[in-house]
């Protein structure tokens, strides 16, 4: 059982975007943040940053203690230098190493450790408490169970594979990584929508259609609390 997130009070509106790899979380979350005037936080990049640092420091992906120390040593921030404000790691924006094949190969193994998830979930709560659009796994169930709006994106596995191949400019090995991550992630943390989440099946929807539906949901709840 995961430790509860420390009681960091939510001070601003939070939109939580959950779902599996390739469902369209990043595309939707970034555009929602821009439209709503909120910071955009991609929590998957935080796990990837730990994986990249582990590779650089030659820490094995099964060394939970060392990985948790790495997670705690990284500085995550949201400098207001872009619109929307986006995650910066140790003062630098996410680089291509975070989406490299090497990181892709171990990120699920790194993320499965309770110690790592506990450290990063606390950081995620602290980053987003002032208001944000946050995407990732277990955002609406663990990190922000008190999120104002929770959206869970789903899509057929074959569609998600094709999307990830296009997104990463890769071939079959990129698509296979989606299937492999689904299997590994399910063992770590079964991917289920929060009881109060709005589920959007994006299998047959384009990005603009998904955005329109999401904005309608958010505005129905938040009204004038956000711009856009």
SSE blueprint:
Blueprint: E1 14-18, H1 25-36, E2 40-42, H2 43-57, H3 64-73, E3 76-77, E4 88-89, H4 101-111, H5 114-128, E5 132-136, H6 139-143, E6 149-154, H7 157-168, H8 172-188, E7 198-201, H9 207-222
Parallel strand pairs: 1-5, 1-6, 2-5, 6-7
Antiparallel strand pairs: 3-4
Helix pairs in contact: 1-9, 2-4, 3-5, 4-8, 7-8
**What strand line-up does the widest sheet have?**
2-5-1-6-7
Mean pLDDT: 87
Strand content: 5-15%
Amino- and carboxy-terminal Cα gap:
38 Å
DSSP summary, beta strand count: 7
Basic shape: globular
CATH superfamily: P-loop containing nucleotide triphosphate hydrolases
Characterization of this structure:
This protein has a single domain, classed as 3-Layer(aba) Sandwich (Rossmann fold), CATH 3.40.50.300. Helix 4 packs parallel to helix 8. The model has no long low-confidence stretch (mean pLDDT 87). It contains nine helices and seven strands, in the order βαβααββααβαβααβα. The termini are far apart. It has 228 residues and is α/β, with parallel strands linked by helices. It is globular and about 50 Å long.
Which key features would you list for this structure?
228 residues; alpha/beta; Rossmann fold; five-stranded parallel beta sheet; two-stranded antiparallel ribbon; 9 helices; 12% strand; globular
């Amino acid at each position: 059982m995961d430790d509860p997130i420390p009681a960091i009070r939510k001070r601003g509106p939070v939109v939580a975007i959950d779902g599996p790899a390739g469902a369209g979380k990043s595309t939707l979350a970034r555009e929602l943040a821009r439209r709503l005037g909120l910071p955009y936080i991609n929590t998957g990049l935080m796990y990837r940053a730990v994986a990249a640092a582990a590779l650089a420091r030659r820490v094995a992906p099964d060394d939970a203690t060392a990985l948790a120390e790495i997670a705690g040593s990284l500085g995550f921030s949201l400098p207001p230098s872009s619109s929307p404000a986006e995650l910066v790691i140790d003062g630098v924006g996410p680089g291509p190493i975070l989406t490299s094949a090497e990181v892709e190969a171990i990120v699920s193994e790194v993320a499965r450790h309770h110690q790592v998830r506990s450290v990063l979930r606390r950081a995620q709560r602290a980053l987003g408490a002032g208001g944000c659009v946050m995407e990732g796994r277990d955002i609406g169930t663990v990190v922000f169970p008190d999120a104002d709006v929770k959206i869970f994106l789903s899509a057929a596995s074959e569609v998600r594979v094709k999307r990830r191949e296009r997104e990463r400019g890769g071939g079959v090995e990129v698509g296979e990584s989606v299937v492999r991550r689904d299997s590994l992630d399910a063992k770590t943390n079964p991917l289920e929508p929060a009881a109060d989440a709005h589920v959007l099946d994006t299998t047959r929807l384009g990005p603009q259609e998904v955005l329109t539906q999401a904005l309608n949901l958010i505005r129905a709840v938040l009204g004038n609390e956000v711009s856009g």
